[in-house]
Amino acid sequence: QVQLVESGGGLVQAGGSLRLSCVASGRTILFYAMGWFRQAPGKEREFVAAISGSGSSTTYADSVKARFTISRDNAKSTVYLQMNSLKPEDTAVYYCAGGFSPNPSVPGPTNDRWYDIWGQGTQVTVSA
Q1: What average pLDDT does the segment 48-67 reach?
Q2: From CA 107, how far away is CA 53, in angstroms rounded?
Q3: What pLDDT score was predicted for residue 63?
Q4: What is the pLDDT of residues 58-69, one digit of tens each?
């Protein structure tokens, strides 16, 4: 069973940057499509970005496109989310998620119900 642990969250001023990491343990994640989601207080969890098992394909929510970059290093069993030009509305708990995908070229979907492995979350707070 794959387990996910996120890190890298914190407090940053608007316009700043953070890089989140998600380390997987238990087995190789090559055949796991991975995604990042976030949940702000009082709001539903929303899709942020997803990446295929090989790292060759990515998708982004419109709200983060051109500011956030998802990547992965399968040798280190780690998925990253580089967040630049942060805005106060990016404040949320960020979750890493994974789901088995036999095609390593297809990114994870935007629907969080497809993912069956979740991390505990890491808080990101962006001050104005």
Answers
A1: 97
A2: 7
A3: 97
A4: 999 999 999 999
User: Residue 32: CB partners within 8 Å, gap ≥ 6?
Assistant: 2, 24, 53, 98, 99, 100, 101, 117
Where helices occur in 53-98 by DSSP H, the ranges are: none
Res. 26: pLDDT tops 90: no
Is 90 exceeded by the pLDDT of residue 50?
yes
Cα torsion through 18, 116, 113, 17, rounded to 10: 0
- 122 and 9 in contact (C-beta within 8 Å)? yes
The number of beta carbons lying within 10 Å of the beta carbon of residue 42 is 5
- Walk across the sheet containing 18-25 and list its strands: 3-7, 18-25, 78-83, 68-73
Q: Which residue, 125, 88, 87, 96, is CA-closest to 7?
A: 96
Q: Which residue, 20, 18, 12, 30, is CA-closest to 119?
A: 20
Q: How far is CA 95 from CA 19, 47, 103, in A?
A: 13, 10, 23
Check residue 105 and give its pLDDT: 93
